[in-house]
Write a structure and sequence with these properties.
Layout (H helix, E strand, L loop, with lengths): L3 E4 L3 E2 L6 E2 L7 E3 L8 E3 L4 E2 L3 H7 E3 L9 E9 L6 E12 L2 E9 L4 H6 L2 E3 L13 H8 L3
Parallel strand pairs: 1-5, 8-11
Antiparallel strand pairs: 1-4, 2-3, 6-10, 7-11, 8-9, 9-10
């Protein structure tokens, strides 16, 4: 099985409003990085990930420029209370070519603006049903790349 990075960040559900605490949140990306064991990442965590790792773990929407320090990934997560799927906006900062820091995580969306801002999107798009405000056409195009 590919390694999984579990993001241990508290996020509020956009549907029921419940706060999913960092210890039990269901927010993870599989196939991200080369570490042979699963990893937990907290805001401020340094992770050994290069751009090639992001391209393996996510679908690439927009390649970051060589001088671009900020990387944005949109990942799907499930609320522990209402069990509705959500979008998380994960922001990373490049420290070196092979090390990034998790800078922030917040509840997000697949709106046109969010997709325009992101570099990467979840490879779990097939589990997502378009919500009001989502760029459904673009999500369908991205899903075809899977």
């Amino acid at each position: 099985m590919p390694p999984t990075i579990r993001f241990r960040v508290p996020l509020a559900c956009s549907q029921c409003g419940d706060l999913n605490d960092a210890r039990s949140i269901d927010l993870a990306t599989s196939g991200l990085g080369a570490d042979p064991i699963d990893t937990s990442a907290f805001v401020g965590s340094a992770l050994e990930l290069g751009l090639e790792d992001f391209a393996d773990g996510y679908l690439t929407i927009r390649e970051p420029g060589d001088d671009e320090q900020r990387l944005i990934a949109l990942e799907i997560w499930g609320c522990n209370t209402c069990h509705r799927l959500q979008v998380a906006r994960l922001e990373f900062r490049r420290r070196t070519a092979q090390v990034v820091e998790l800078v922030s995580a917040r509840t997000g969306s697949f709106s046109r603006e969010a997709l325009d801002d992101a570099n990467y999107v979840s490879r779990e798009l097939r589990t997502w049903a378009a919500q009001p405000g989502d760029d459904a056409e673009r999500l369908a195009e991205l899903e075809e790349l899977l």
